Amino acid sequence: MRVPGTEGVGTADFLASDLAACGRIIREGSKSFHAASLLLPRDVRAAAYALYAFCRVSDDAVDEGAHPGAALQDVRRRLRLADAGQPDPTSVDRAFAWVLQAYGIPSAVPEALVEGFEWDAQGRRHETLQDVKSYAARVAATVGVMMTLVMGVRSCQALARACDLGLAMQLTNIARDIGEDARAGRCYLPAQWLREAGLTPEDLGALSEADERVRRLTERMLEAARPLYASGLSGIALLPEACRPAIRAAAAIYAEIGVEIARAGHDSIAQRAVVSKRRKIALAAGSFIPGRLGAADRTAPPAPECQFLIDAVEAAPAPPPIVLDAPKAGSAPWAIDLFLRLEQRDLYPEQG
Asked: Is the pTM of this model over 0.85?
């Protein structure tokens, strides 16, 4: 890959500097993600930093800028250049271009993520649960696909299960943030569900606490996520052993958000469910113990809303095989100590 601005500088050293800059963006922008990423092998972690930094910077540009349309056009321009191996001369774009090439990530996958940003900027409402899943496929399943690829796995089964896990996490986000989203003029619940409940998005924004109708809608969204978690977890066995604890931890912490929502009586209007630091630490430590896979069929076909992502990967040329760091002996005690130290340094926030 030709990286602009590297004349007279070792490409490897330049890339290391770019990846370090991406790591700083993660530490400052999402401490919870940074903590969980430390459970990944070093090479996967570096690629994850590059992916996250590009997505984070791009999302912020669209979401926080005065001209979302122009920001979207610029993100698409940067993505085209990165895919062509001629990224903008910034650490984030250079690192992202390296990941696309090194791990054989087809541009259609991050393009779908940007389409999700566009749907948000348009304030698009979703008529059915399937429409909500189509949105989740873009803003969440895309990340699952890219993470699976940087782990060196390209099988359709593994990608399908990663998509399921991404969908489950996004549906959990929607259930958790109903009140917060409504007060910001957003609604991700299916319009069909709202009509059946006799509610409008504006009604949700006017509530100070959930009534029985909203509690039922929240519970219904969590019920939609439950089989997706089971299916997604079944696919962890298809990932490299060194990567499994981090994915188990992320899935467990997100699923625990649903537990907290239920504990609060499914009221996502008056409060935003959070998982305590102590509980996060316990879940992270427990991620080193393989859990029961349940009855989910890991060979099941992909969710229809995600099929286009898997088709894009199948059509893309595969990079050379990737050899990951081997798991270290005594990893579980090390992880417990890590999360305890993160808590003591207040780098692992209550929310996130």
From this structure: yes
